[in-house]
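Hey L., structure's done. Input below.
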Amino acid sequence: MGSFGTSLPGLAGNVPVATLPTINYRLLLNCDEAEMAKLLSVSIREGFFYLDLEDEDVSQTTCGYIDQIYNFMRTWFNQDLEIKLQDLQSNYTDGYKATGFFAGPYDGTRDAYESLKVSHKGIKAPEASVPAAIQSERALFEAYLTRANSIARQLLSALSTASGLPPAERFENFHQTSEDSNSVLVLLRYPYVPPAEQSKTVGHNKHTDIGSITVLFTDQWGLQVMAADSQQWQWVAPRRNCAIINVGDSLRFLSQKKLKSCLHRVVPVDGQTSDRYTIAYFLRPDNRVSFIDSNGAHVTAQHWHDVKYEVFRATQEEQRRDTILTGGLEPAVASGV
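Output:
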């Protein structure tokens, strides 16, 4: 599954590598009580962990889909910008976002990544509304969306069981595949940053995720998470046959803030010589679901999604006015770095 670095590249600032727990997916599928209890503990304490997929059935392996999607991304993102702009997103959940669309970490700066989104509702829409490249690989994207959704819902089911939730309150009930939602697959490319520019470039500003569960694959360094104990940034190492999972805002709110969502960001790596690619699936609640958000307001999942998405676009000054970007978590450093 791609080319994994076996050691940490040279990095400025002596940023440590996070020691994230690992959850075994096969054990969750087998309803192993100890593994489900471990998942709940990890989701309460860290909110970030590895999901070991190595024991999956080879014929249905997620990693096989991931390799195919990486190949698609390297071809699609290396097209001329004018071609990619033909697929410019017209809504929140489908299409292309160019570099610089969102605010960056410093006043007056913009983000340093581009993305292509593919949603469940988009892939099922008439072909005319789907980018031609996605149409040509429709079977692949339909299969992976189904697979990623299944993984995320299995995590919700295990968390519900370990939490002892009654049937009506189980987390997966708020994420019905038959209901309208903003769940989406996002393909991200962080272009190579020359060494002279790396000290003032952050590919993706600090934030918490909008939705409930994020299923992320990357085979390159760059992701950082805010450590709960030290409130310092730590590198998240890429691991073969493992997804990186994190709890998002919506699941935190649905759990009455029992479960933990974490600040994270993406930064350039010293010695980086190529673009960085990431495949992220965001499971979000049904649009009609409601909860109390970070500002204490009673809102629907649709409202939280739309408002937070617009906050990413806002200026740094506007972002600092409320708690939406960081999901109600206090930033570790006032400057945002």
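DSSP finds eleven helices and 14 strands in the chain. Residues 134 and 277 are 17 Å apart (CA to CA).

-- N.
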